[in-house]
């Protein structure tokens, strides 16, 4: 499986159940989100614009992914609503890893390119790093309609937060076609 | 990293913070455990005994791992206390995967051999399957003192429960030596 197929399988509407562990305090906090994920072609204006912001040739983009979320966190009144566009650009010599462009998140002021890699176990790993933080996100499918996602955030003082999301596809009408199958898919 | 090194890195005492997601009901439940994990040599009586129970030659065992746990689950009065011994036996032609022997768990009556594999991203995946269930567990290290673990259980009706554990090494005095480093280790 390559990242375009991973993104293709991710497209659709999802219900995401999230738990965050504050590692230093042995505390857990829940949350829920609705995700709407859309695969964008290389020629989509949002893909081209993001490449240009990073001063990269848009023809290098493999595709784009637009992610919209609308969610709540236990104990917080304000909803979390937002969206981002991701664009993968493969390394010339290793098609399963490369650079991941991302639109600015809330409160962010500097564009930060991350890295992606698709492992032999069909897990997609996304990393991002700045002077003050390091984040690592892992995503994989248990079956075409059940996706898992973990993320861990390291700030200057050490690893601070780990989170886990169970994501269930909503209103399955036409799951995206799959050209390869993972072990878990075969069990599904 | 091979499975013996993974088990070696896992040895010691850990505090494990667990959240389980009941997938059909959008419910989460917390829990905590203390883990004590011990690497056993191929010649340990517990390793030899387990191989004999499975009618396998004990010299095929790569090592053994004894895991003791003592924990609680939110909303349940009874503590969960138990232990298990795991023994990996590599496939002849692929050193990074093989059969995983396991002692009988509470309430289990039939020995069930699972499978293990260590992926290119240094994630250890354990699977087990019977006529009525399929389980998949993934374990990886964010750094030598922080381990993550997810598990998903599928029963006859479909995927039922997913859980996530953040595991922090307790009382670090001498973390086990590592011969290779993951990306995350390098950031640690």
Automatic annotation (TrEMBL), chains A, B:
Name its GO BP terms in alphabetical order.
Answer: protein-tetrapyrrole linkage
Q: Is Transmembrane a UniProt keyword of this protein?
A: no
Q: Give the region (Disordered) as residue ranges.
A: 169-188
Q: What is its EC number?
A: 4.-.-.-
Q: What does this chain do?
A: Covalently attaches a chromophore to Cys residue(s) of phycobiliproteins.
UniProt keyword annotations, A-Z: Lyase
Per UniProt, the ranges with Polar residues bias are 179-188
GO MF terms here are: lyase activity
Cross-referenced InterPro entries, in alphabetical order? Calycin, CpcS/CpeS
- Please give the Pfam families that the UniProt record associates with this protein: CpeS (PF09367)
Protein's name in the database: Chromophore lyase CpcS/CpeS
UniProt similarity note: Belongs to the CpcS/CpeS biliprotein lyase family.
Coiled-coil stretches noted in the UniProt entry, renumbered to this chain? none
């Amino acid at each position: 499986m390559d990242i375009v197929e991973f993104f293709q399988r991710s497209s659709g509407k999802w219900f995401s159940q999230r738990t965050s562990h504050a590692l230093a305090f042995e505390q857990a906090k829940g949350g829920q989100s609705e995700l709407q994920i859309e695969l964008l072609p290389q020629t989509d204006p949002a893909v081209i614009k993001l490449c240009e912001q990073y001063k990269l040739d848009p023809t290098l983009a493999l595709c784009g992914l637009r992610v919209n979320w609308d969610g709540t966190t236990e104990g917080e009144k304000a909803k979390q609503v937002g969206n981002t566009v991701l664009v993968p650009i493969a390394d010339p010599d290793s098609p399963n890893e490369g650079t991941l462009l991302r639109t600015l998140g809330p409160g962010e002021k500097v564009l930060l390119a991350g890295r992606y890699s698709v492992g032999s176990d069909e897990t997609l790993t996304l990393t991002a790093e700045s002077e003050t933080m390091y984040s690592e996100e892992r995503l994989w499918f248990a079956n075409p309609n059940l996706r898992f996602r973990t993320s861990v955030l390291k700030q200057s003082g050490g690893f601070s937060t780990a989170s886990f999301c169970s994501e269930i596809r909503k209103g399955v009408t036409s799951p995206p076609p799959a050209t390869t199958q993972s072990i878990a898919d075969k069990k599904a």
